[in-house]
Please model this.
Amino acid sequence: MAIPHMTPSEFRKRGREVIDWIADYMERIEGYPVLSTVKPGDIRAMLPEHPPTTGEEFDDVIADLDRIVMPGITHWQSPGFHAFFNANASGPAILGDLVSSGLGVQGMLWITSPACTELETHVMDWLVEMLDLPPAFLSSGAGGGVIQDSASSATLTAVIAAREAATLGTANRTGTAGGLIAYTSTQAHSSVEKGIRIAGIGIDNLRSIEVDAAFAMRPVALEKAIEKDLAAGRRPFFVCATVGSTSSTAIDPVREIGEICRRHGIWLHVDAALAGTAALLPEMRWIHDGVELADSYVFNPHKWMLTNFDCTAFFVADRTPLIGALSVLPEYLRNEASASGAVIDYRDWQIPLGRRFRALKLWFVIRHYGVGGLQAFVREHLRLTKLFASWVDADDDFELAAPAPVNLVCFRHSGGDDVNQRILEQVNQSGEIYLNHTKLDAKLTIRMSIGQTHTEERHVRKAWELIRKASA
Amino acid sequence: MAIPHMTPSEFRKRGREVIDWIADYMERIEGYPVLSTVKPGDIRAMLPEHPPTTGEEFDDVIADLDRIVMPGITHWQSPGFHAFFNANASGPAILGDLVSSGLGVQGMLWITSPACTELETHVMDWLVEMLDLPPAFLSSGAGGGVIQDSASSATLTAVIAAREAATLGTANRTGTAGGLIAYTSTQAHSSVEKGIRIAGIGIDNLRSIEVDAAFAMRPVALEKAIEKDLAAGRRPFFVCATVGSTSSTAIDPVREIGEICRRHGIWLHVDAALAGTAALLPEMRWIHDGVELADSYVFNPHKWMLTNFDCTAFFVADRTPLIGALSVLPEYLRNEASASGAVIDYRDWQIPLGRRFRALKLWFVIRHYGVGGLQAFVREHLRLTKLFASWVDADDDFELAAPAPVNLVCFRHSGGDDVNQRILEQVNQSGEIYLNHTKLDAKLTIRMSIGQTHTEERHVRKAWELIRKASA
Model:
């Protein structure tokens, strides 16, 4: 049997069709219900039980995208998507990612595609400049940046590096030494708990530090917990501070936390997954006050910087414990360039071995928009957030549930949980917007995230009208 | 400042240009030196020190792909790429991935795009059928499959699930309990050691079991090691068997290893990252003999099944310990569908929270090629491997260094390490092919991997001619 490879000329033809399909989708996106309305099993019921024996026509595959896949899509790229945090995309990012797929290189070692490594190092350095991050995160010093798949993986990586630093390699050899204690706030992302579990620290050894009225970690409570553990003979080794918590974008006081960490020789990791992008704006850099005290830092260009998932920017101030924790060198990966020490092998900076050429999409985005374009984009979302918060604040039936320092408004109707639940269900069923909830002060709270690529004032205004209507 | 978003119509235009650029690349690929010839720093030296303030022309970005990026590419998609294991791609995979980027959905929960979850479950079930894997791996039973980024992550996930199963959740709560012992062969992939480190088990607690003359794990040695550890009061909890080792595609005797694991209640993970794809062919299914005894199994469609990176297929026979180990449920992820238990939330099956719609590219590949087309593809590579091995075998100056059961030939010149090193350097410098090395029986050994999408007999023949010429 002949192997039915797609020829370059067929790829040219089919590629154009797929590009057109996506462009059509971009044009029609506001016509879809934001939240998919299918029931569990609906999509599978449309799929054939067995894979095809012989190849099918590409036309049929594309037709099935519309027929089978689209009903089961929750439209993250819709301007009416206000749930979770956004995962925004853009034309240049999609095309940069397409080039990455087309080249199909593995960047695990410098030698397996030098451009994949060097462009990544370069755009990571650009990000340090763009966000005015500490010079220690530049590749020219002891630290540096790497692109990972998600902030969860980056936080796990930070835990592993911190464990290495605290135990001087003992954890790598004999297992996670008893007595290691980690700290984060009650409002930290679930990935901190997940990372602590995976690394074998155990959640009994993760302290959830109380927060203040703005849901930010209380440094006094942190230091007290550390001192209590020290007195009990335990070994505090890791603190995760959050800049922009998932529930409410609370900003932990990084400087005070960092000073405590320095006093006690504890690794400070800063999780700015969503909010970091705001530091593109000079007027927002206060969120990073004290970040020069951090040992590691993460933010996601794939959330709010127009670079489609996955693109997590992870930085360390000192790469030695990171590489010490993760480097394994079998014979088949040895090569002259690596042995020379003159190159970076990013496989040692992450959990997986293999890696895509993800720097391309970030490079495309930064070049297409320019720093000024990205700033204008973020600034507009901040304006819309303040605007929406002002409407909530001015309405007697609603109240703000938390400060809104970045691009998320947490609010609730004064009628209690049932009313808020009903509002959520009603607006989500409308198909026009998608919101989700959290709990703050033990009360159901509606989250309105404003970060989608094409969200404009008219969308935010419509969302508010739908919410008010649902509350009537 | 206006935000310079790329409009759908501009995306249409630029998208076509990028598709054409990739199609041109496909047509020209044999004209490039396979292994990049740049020196460390060459690529960075061509990049501007600072990011642009205002957006640049897309034409300039594309032009820089040719000017800056291409010299630093090692061409994994060249038919002359025979190093490591291949990471092959195909037109339908690239286009499926493009659709995924265009939709830009997050599949972390069923509700965040039901099609992303259900199509994934469906094609994972298809793979079970296609490779004739045990029914326990089907989603209809207690187990199921998930797409992860890499076999390294899957093996780490297996370690975490095994740890959960062995400690009944204690590891999650109090940290990795002392005394846990893992086992793999001396020929196992470096990701086993990396996973054991990350999970806090410690490499002192990973036993490297000796291999036989064909570099396959010796079950007798495994059982002896287990009994020794049991006698010392330790807790054997995890065995990783390899089907197709990275050095030489050695096939561990999974059935005998599995029976030992069953007797002692130890989790068996099977790493078939490269070789699993061979089981598309009925005549190759012997490599999986005994895999019904495995608790988890991984293979990479992104290596040899035409689905570009990243696409790792990970299966478990029982999903309970997996989810028990990895599920964390904060308020903002709660939803009715998840609470009903009627849906899969794949975030609990992996290290990260976020996830791309990776099932699309696999679906595109299976539908485009059909099972028969994929079989023909793999069968041809097996034929070429046998052919190449027969040339080596028939040449008095060369010898086979290991059996070649799948698509890798390990061989060496009889002149010793220096001669083999010189051969490697010379053929790699030729630009026509790229090979790498390993050590077997402490001798430098050349690895010839035959798995690139467009590798035909003429390429393999040319490679052998270059090798012979370099040895003269």
About this structure: Chain A has two domains: 105-356, 364-471. The mean pLDDT of chain A is 96.
